[in-house]
From TrEMBL:
It comes from the Bacteria. In the presence of PdxS, forms a dodecamer of heterodimers. Only shows activity in the heterodimer. InterPro entries: Class_I_gatase-like, PdxT/SNO, PdxT/SNO_CS. The gene is pdxT. SUPFAM superfamilies: Class I glutamine amidotransferase-like. It comes from Agromyces humatus. This is Pyridoxal 5'-phosphate synthase subunit PdxT. NCBIfam families: PLP_synth_Pdx2 (TIGR03800).
């Protein structure tokens, strides 16, 4: 299957690795720059974006990751991973940086604290008719979608919680933890298509 890395600095990378393996990908955990060379796609998990940002810079991964994203590497970010992919981050901590790539503004912790986590069913036309059951855990919201990006899903109040732009995909919620595989399948289709044209 396609060779997909999961950024394993922090967060729920094991859950993503499990889903991707079930879907037939050859999964590797990425912690060092050289490990980027062997992959055709990357998942950035949920967790804590401030920590992921610091560790990715400390391990010398941030710059190679930015270059890979610019070069067209397919990347799927969930929650903290979406924050890492956003061009602009509101309610960031002092000095927090993102990798960027997605032409969106996200706001961290937009739905409140950990104990205000919630689950809801989303309509995601790109994934078919059946609703997506979405688990939100201190997730970000997409406050604005720039001209290069496309909203894939909104919650009932109209706020955007899933976006894509070319080879990049981001969700405010965590399909990796509740058996919702369609986002990962959608992402693997991008990985296969990019690998074919490369
Ligand atoms: N609140 C976290 C952050 O800002 C994201 C939470 C998550 O990934 N579940 O990075």
């Amino acid at each position: 299957g396609p060779r997909v890395g999961v950024l394993a600095l922090q967060g729920d990378f094991r859950e993503h690795a499990h889903v991707l393996t079930k879907l037939g990908a050859s999964v590797s955990l990425v912690r060092r720059p050289a490990e980027l060379d062997a992959i055709e796609g990357l998942v950035i998990p949920g967790g804590e974006s401030t920590v992921m940002d610091k560790l990715s810079r400390a391990y010398g991964l941030a710059e190679p990751l930015k270059a890979a994203i610019t070069a067209g590497l397919p990347v799927y970010g969930t929650c903290a991973g979406l924050i890492m992919l956003a061009d602009s981050v509101l309610d960031a901590i002092a000095g927090q940086q993102s990798l960027g790539g997605l032409d969106v503004v996200v706001r961290r912790n937009a739905f409140g604290s950990q104990n205000q986590s919630f689950e809801t069913d989303l309509d995601v036309p790109a994934l078919g008719d059946a609703p997506v059951h979405a688990v939100f855990i201190r997730g970000p919201v997409v406050e604005s979608v720039g001209p290069s990006a496309t909203a894939l899903a909104t919650i009932s109040d109209g706020r955007v919680v899933a976006v894509e732009q070319g080879n990049l995909l981001g969700t405010s919620f965590h399909p990796e933890i509740n058996g919702e595989y369609r986002f990962h399948k959608y992402f693997l289709a991008k990985v296969r298509a990019a690998a074919t044209t490369a």
